[in-house]
Write a structure and sequence with these properties.
The structure is a single chain. By secondary structure, the chain is of the alpha/beta class. It folds into 2 domains: 234 residues, Spore Coat Polysaccharide Biosynthesis Protein SpsA, Chain A (Alpha-Beta Complex), CATH 3.90.550; 208 residues, 3 Solenoid (UDP N-Acetylglucosamine Acyltransferase, domain 1), CATH 2.160.10.10. The protein has 9 helices and 41 strands. The strands form 7 sheets. Strands 12-15-18-21-24-27-30-33-36-39-41 form an 11-stranded parallel beta sheet, with helices on one face. Strands 14-17-20-23-26-29-32-35-38 form a 9-stranded parallel beta sheet, with no helix packed on it. It has a 7-stranded mixed beta sheet with strand order 5-4-1-6-10-7-11, with helices on both faces. Helix 1 crosses helix 2.
Length: 460
C-alpha cells in the first residue's frame, strides 16, 4: 500500500470491554490464546500494516491492559508509536471510536480492529486496507460467509450487490436471518467521513450507546460508497466473548501452528493431542510424538525426538536431542543429550552436550557437563558437574540446610556410587570415587576413594 508520505494510515484497536461473559477478574483482551494475551495477535497484525500510528482504546482495568500491551510491544520489537485512549464510559463501539478522533483526525484513513479477534490474518488485514484504497469508497468492511451465522450482524446488500447496511441479529427478520454474510467488526474508514458520521449518529437504548455499524447506513444515505472485502478464511472472524469461544480460538491457532511446523519439515505424529504455542520454534526433521505440550518461547533444534507425554516450557533444546515423558522448564539442553523417561528439569539448568538424565531424576539450577550420566532416581540441585561423571542411582545433593542453598561441585571423570548423599557445600575432585551408600560431608581430593559409611556388623 502506498500511503502518501507514510502518514496517511492509522490503526485503532478497541480493547475497552470488560468481557462479563468470560466470568473472570482478568480483562478479556488479556486472556491467553496460544501462549499470548489475545490482543497480542491484533497488535501484531496492526504493526504489520505499517501504519504511522497505532491507537488502543482502553477502559476496564485500563492500567493493567496498557502495561501488558507495552510489554508485548517491547517483546515483539514493535517500534511504531502506540497511543492509548481511555474510554471513560462503556457507551458502545461508536463512542469508543469517537473518543479516539483526536488521534485519528491526523490521518487520512483508519483501520479499526477489535482486540478480541485473535484469529484475524495478515492476508485479510492487508486485503481490507488495500481493497479500500483501490475501491476509493468511504468505508470498507471485512465480511465472511459462515455456515452458521448465528450471533453476528448480517450484511445487507442491494440486488446489484452493493452494501447497504449491517442489521443486528436481534433486529433481523426471518428472511434477513437467512443471510450468511456477516460483519467481522474490522473496518477501514476515510477519517473525514467517519468524523462527520460519528457526530451525527444518535445513541440507542437506555444507555444511549453509539454503535459503529450505524455509521455505514448514515454514510450510505448521504451518497457515500461502502465496500466489503470478503474473507477467504471464514474462521478468522470469530470473536472471543466466553470461555467456550476462547477454547475454540485456542484449537484454531494451535492447528495453524502445527500446520506451519509440518510444512517447514517437522513431523507431528498426532496433531489432535499436541499443543504448541505461537512463539515456539522447531528445527527440520524433529519428530513430535503424541501428547506433547510445548509452551512459551521454547526453541527446539533439528533431528530431535520429543515426546510422548512431554511438557516443555521456555526451554532451549539443541540438535539431535531426545526427550521422553518428561517435564522441562526454563532450561537449556545441549546437543545429543537424552532426557527421560520421567525426568524433571527445573529452571536455570544447563545439561550436556551428550549428557543423559534418566528415570525419575530431577535437576534444578545445575550445570551438567559433556557426557555426564544421571541415570536413575537422583536429585541434583545447585550443582556444577563437569564432563564424564557417573552419578549412581539414588544420589542426592543435599543443597539446603533449612536457611541457605549450598553448592556441590563434582570435577571431571568422578564416579559417584549408588545411594550417596553429598552434603553441600562440598567438592569432589577429578577422578575421585565415592563408595556406594556414603554420606559425604567433606571435600574429596582428586583420584581419591571416599568411603563414608559405618562398618558392617553381623550379629546373631
Amino acid at each position: 500500500m502506498n500511503h502518501k508520505g507514510g502518514r496517511s494510515l492509522a490503526v485503532l484497536i478497541l480493547a475497552a470491554g470488560e468481557g462479563t461473559r468470560m466470568e473472570s477478574t482478568i480483562p478479556k483482551v488479556l486472556h491467553p490464546v496460544g501462549g499470548r494475551p489475545m490482543i497480542f495477535y491484533t497488535l501484531r497484525l496492526a504493526n504489520a500494516l505499517k501504519p504511522a500510528s497505532i491507537g488502543v482504546v482502553v477502559g476496564h482495568e485500563s492500567d493493567r491492559v496498557k502495561q501488558s500491551i507495552q510489554q508485548l510491544a517491547k517483546d515483539c520489537g514493535i517500534t511504531r508509536p502506540i497511543t492509548f485512549i481511555h474510554q471513560r464510559r462503556a457507551l458502545g463501539s461508536g463512542n469508543a471510536v469517537l473518543e479516539a478522533l483526536p488521534l485519528l483526525k491526523k490521518f487520512k484513513t483508519a483501520v479499526v480492529f477489535c482486540g478480541d479477534t485473535p484469529l484475524l490474518t495478515y492476508e485479510s488485514g492487508y486485503g481490507l486496507a488495500q481493497s479500500h484504497e483501490e475501491q476509493k469508497g468511504q468505508v470498507t468492511l471485512l465480511t465472511a460467509k459462515l455456515g452458521n451465522p448465528k450471533g453476528y450482524g448480517r450484511v445487507m446488500r442491494s440486488p446489484l450487490g452493493e452494501v447497504l447496511r449491517i442489521i443486528e441479529e436481534s433486529l433481523a427478520s426471518p428472511k434477513e436471518l437467512s443471510i450468511n454474510e456477516i460483519n467481522s467488526g474490522a473496518y477501514c474508514f476515510e477519517v473525514e467521513t467517519l468524523q462527520t458520521a460519528l457526530k451525527e449518529i444518535g445513541g440507542k437504548g437506555p444507555k444511549k450507546e453509539r454503535f459503529l455499524t450505524d455509521v455505514l447506513e448514515l454514510v450510505r444515505n448521504k451518497g457515500g460508497k461502502i465496500n466489503a472485502y470478503v474473507s477467504q478464511n471464514p474462521e478468522e472472524v470469530y470473536g472471543v466473548n466466553s470461555r467456550l469461544q476462547l477454547s475454540a480460538a485456542e484449537r484454531i491457532l494451535n492447528r495453524r501452528m502445527l500446520e506451519r511446523l509440518m510444512l517447514s519439515g517437522v513431523t507431528v505424529m498426532d496433531p489432535a493431542s499436541t499443543h504448541i504455542d505461537a512463539d515456539v520454534e522447531i528445527g527440520q526433521d524433529t519428530v513430535i510424538q503424541p501428547s506433547t505440550i510445548l509452551r512459551g518461547k521454547t526453541v527446539i533444534g533439528r533431528n530431535c525426538a520429543i515426546g510422548p507425554f512431554c511438557y516443555i516450557e521456555n526451554s532451549q533444546i539443541g540438535n539431535d536431542c531426545e526427550v521422553r515423558i518428561s517435564q522441562l522448564t526454563d532450561c537449556r539442553i545441549l546437543e545429543k543429550t537424552a532426557i527421560g523417561p520421567f525426568s524433571h528439569i527445573r529452571p536455570e539448568s544447563v545439561i550436556g552436550p551428550r549428557a543423559r538424565i534418566g528415570n525419575f531424576s530431577e535437576v534444578k539450577a545445575s550445570r551438567i557437563g559433556f557426557g555426564t550420566k544421571v541415570n536413575h532416581l537422583s536429585y541434583i540441585g545447585d550443582a556444577e558437574i563437569h564432563e564424564d561423571v557417573n552419578i549412581g542411582a539414588g544420589t542426592i545433593t543435599c543443597n539446603y540446610d533449612g536457611k541457605t542453598k549450598h553448592k556441590t561441585i563434582i570435577a571431571a571423570k568422578a564416579f559417584v556410587g549408588s545411594n550417596v548423599n553429598l552434603i553441600a557445600p562440598v567438592k569432589i575432585g577429578r577422578g575421585a570415587q565415592i563408595a556406594a551408600g556414603s554420606t559425604v560431608t567433606e571435600d574429596v581430593p582428586d583420584d581419591a576413594l571416599a568411603i563414608a559409611r559405618a562398618r558392617q556388623v553381623n550379629k546373631k
